[in-house]
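Before any further analysis, we paired sequence with structure tokens, yielding the entry below:
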Amino acid sequence: MKRSPILLLPMLLAGCAWLAPTYHRPQMPMPDRWGTQQAATVPDGGEWWRSYGDPVLDALVAEALKGNDDLALAGTKLQQARAQYKYAFANQLPSISVAGADAMGRLHLKDELPVTHKMSNLGFVGGMLNYEVDLWGKNASLSKAAKAGVKAAGYGHEAARLSIAAATAKLYFSLRALDREREILQQTIETQTALLALVQRQHEVGAVDALVVQNVTEQRDAAQAALPDVEDQRGKAESALAVMLGRSPRQIIGQAMERGKNIDELTVPIPTPPEIPSTLLERRPDIAMREQTLIASNFNIGFARAAYFPTISLASLAGVNNIDIDNLYRATTRSWTLAASMAAPVLDFGRTASGVKLARAEKNEQVILYKQSIRTAFKEVHDALLEQNNAHEREQGDGGKETAAEKTVELTQLRLEHGYSSRLDVLSAQVLAQQAELAHTTALLSRLDASVDMYRAIGGGFEVRQRHDDAKK
């Protein structure tokens, strides 16, 4: 039996979103290079936080990626997008349903007919098939838009993972820096207290005046006043990190946060962006998410345009009918019907045109947001480069000052042993060394934070995926 080409035409055209504009990625002028020849240092598997060499940090990031609420919300959005795509895809296929009816009644016939008046049953059991012929690609456009939405939600989930890992690392580094600052302040208070006691004894014998005693007292009091602030910041950093990890309220209140290496024992990587700036577009999940949202809005134009054209639907009904006067379902008849309907817009007072204009405006909005995400990405990389370079120089400078101050303490102690310096000179040198150590700790934290910002700016360990061509298929 030959099939008419006319009957095959709906099957050939169905699934083609040909009313949607052809998608072209918006182009923006890119720099040739970042000014560096180095490639980004990202550990295998994309777990960039392992480059700091702290197993406790690795465990905390893994816990955050498993229990963080924001990441769980991103996961539910991905599930919603997948369900929406399955719904839109199923909309392109026929729907089959079962129909049945049963009724009881009495036939009223003429008295002269040899049929007794008695109760009878009228029944029908069958199936129904409904199918909308997608000649204009309306349902196909909606399905492809939903597919791009799934990809956008997936990239959004990756962006959330990157942000959560970065925030966890920075909170952990802040906590370790505050731990070290507390230790240094406690040592400073002890040194200042011993220095004050020595100065007071010298003042009692007239070796120093009251102004020296007052200055040393103010320095000791300032160190004591700074300690509660550090304790407060340290407690808040612990609770913030516990919330980031997704821990329970009982754990937030009563469980101490794990510690690993001291802040000065951590490896400080120097991640740099790839030599080719365009690779940033493939690495950043937020940019990929914006592009997939743009692709979805492009297909939405095709869906809106399809409203200009008629809607053609096919319906088929097949089943068994019973008209049984003597006994229920003793006699049966088979029946089937095939029908087609068409609804074409005639006058909608600009409703369809407004829908198309709205879809185009939404696409223009997504184009702007996509370009904005690229600008933001390059700004973040540029700022992270400056921050990383400045933090590295600052940390080296403060580290040199700390080393010099420690050497001064060592030499002053040696002079004391040989009678060339006093205990006052040693304590004063220790105070200066502790102040230099505090400054170095702050600079080291800035350098660690700068490296995290750079990892985040270049997309961390986000793996490049084939997305642009797949979305157009």
